[in-house]
Amino acid sequence: MKPMLEAINVGANSSLKIATYNNSSYCESAGWHVHPEYELVYVKNGSGCLHIGTKKTPYSKGTLVFLAGNIPHADFGNKDHKDNIEVVIQFRKEFLDEKISVFPEFEGIKRLIEKSGHVLVFDQQCQDKLQSKFEAFAFQDNQSRLINLLSILGELSREKHYQVLFESFSTHEFKSDEIRRLENIFEYVNTNYNKEISVPEISSQLGFTPNSFSRFFKKMTQRRFLDFVNEYRITKAVELFNEDNSTIAETMYKSGFNDPSYFSKQFRRYQGISPSTYLNRRYSPLLS
Question: Do residue 85 and residue 198 come from a single domain?
């Protein structure tokens, strides 16, 4: 059975998507699915089954599993106990390529993330040791969550006791042509977001007409391609504002916009405030 593509919405103000569920706010089932994001899942207690790729691995006292993107899997959690929680952490490949890899001090974490392509299941002792850190996510802001995750990944990178589910894993057999095409679209936007993106050009590269391309993208993502590109560019604009001292005009051009009023309109749409207000709020505490 081919897995369905799950769209993961990582916010523009965060490198991660972190969600905590309990017995009354249970994670909505995605069924048999796949997504390009890495996924770290902590389940506090209870029994269930890790259905990942071709393997089904039962657990009885909760679980802690780390898997790379594009590995098909079913939902991991359970409702055995009222005090159970499930923490699901997802991040994109750019988190490794653009953030973690910059710091040589994170070499151990980088190796851990690379190992996740084999799917890692950590033992009970590791689960218990990290329980308080996973439970803390529910009460933290984005900055604290990032620091907490790096701390958890650091602990996991030093762990010796874990199960490797796959010696090697090929995602090709699980991918439908539609998922491969969608991944090619995402990669095209990631590479060309700061340039003019031509629908006829990308359509031609993927074997679509412009109209069939638009229909395909809407069917797969439930959104228009232009909206996706604009949100992606605003995400990059926020990253530029946060990482350097670029002016609004410089950031606008670097993120792929060339019309100040349109840039401001799209920034308001996805951030809720204007670019100038965003910068004022970001830097005013530093000036007081």
Answer: no
Which of 164, 196, 231 is the last residue in one of the domains? 164
Contact status, residue 119 vs residue 67, Cβ threshold 8 Å: yes
CA triple 165-21-227, angle to 5 deg: 90
Q: What is the mean pLDDT of each run of 10 residues along the chain (288 residues)?
A: 58 75 69 83 94 89 93 87 92 85 92 93 96 94 91 95 80 62 82 89 89 88 86 85 82 93 93 88 58
Residue 186 has which token pair? Answer: 């995402």
Q: Residue 263: CA atoms inside 13 Å, Cβ hemisphere, count?
A: 21
Give 24's contacts (C-beta < 8 A, 6+ positions apart).
Answer: none
Q: Is 41 helix (H, G, I), strand (E, B) or coil?
A: strand
Whether residue 95 sits in one domain with residue 10 = yes
Write out the two tokens for 167.
């010696």
- Pairing type for strands 48-52 and 120-122 reads unpaired
Range of the domain at 237: 176-282
Q: Are residues 160 and 208 in the same domain?
A: no
Q: Are strands 33-34 and 4-5 parallel, antiparallel or unpaired?
A: parallel
